[in-house]
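Team,

Forwarding the record for the chain on the shared tracking sheet. I've put the sequence and predicted structure together so nobody has to dig through attachments.
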Amino acid sequence: MKCNLIRLFESMFLMVFIVAVWHIAAETGSVSRILLPSPLMIGSTLIKKLGDGSLLAEMGISVGRVLKGYFCSVAGGVCFGVIIGLSEPIYRMTKILIQILKPIPPIAWIPLVILWMGIGESSKVFLIFLGGFFVVLLNVIDGIRYIDPKLIEVADAVETPKAKYIFDLVIPAAMPSIFTGLRVALGTSWSCVVAAELVAASSGIGYMISNARNFGQMDVVIIGMITIGIVGKFMDEILRLLEKKVLAWNF
């Protein structure tokens, strides 16, 4: 019990210290409240938005979009990753293309996405998909290509059927790398929701932040940022628990 309390104090100390300094700076006028509202002002606005349900509504819309884009990126990344990882010729053909496309941030795709898909829901989901796809893809490819050669030699020696080889050897052996990709991709997809909701959106956390910025409501902007961080952390913890359950042998 005492150990848990110490760990809780250690994890909370820096955040409490930052908020305290922030509060003092705002109250003493060292920082303009227009540029950086005080924690008390943000807390008051947060209670108001939670009370009228507007924050939860915007958050729910954003989470829905993120999950759609994320699951599409996982499905595509795993499928193409397995195909590319298992075939040396396909890996050589796609290597340079992947290396060129991966560094392009999703926000750079916005003009093309608007032309291709308009300003509807599909364009936002596609941008989130781009944020996670290459992360999953590369981790799946690396996980497969770095499987212990001895395992492959044994499978070849006993003439393991292709389907059994993939599902009973390749994927389980690559699973630690795959889960790393899933966790990183989830964070990337969630961070892309703001960029996605800049595409003529009328709802979501990204829209709330953009709209508040236009009206100079910095307290609402900060609330949106904090909400993104907290929800992202919560989603990562869920995936971490799933990873520990599936890969109990790896912990």
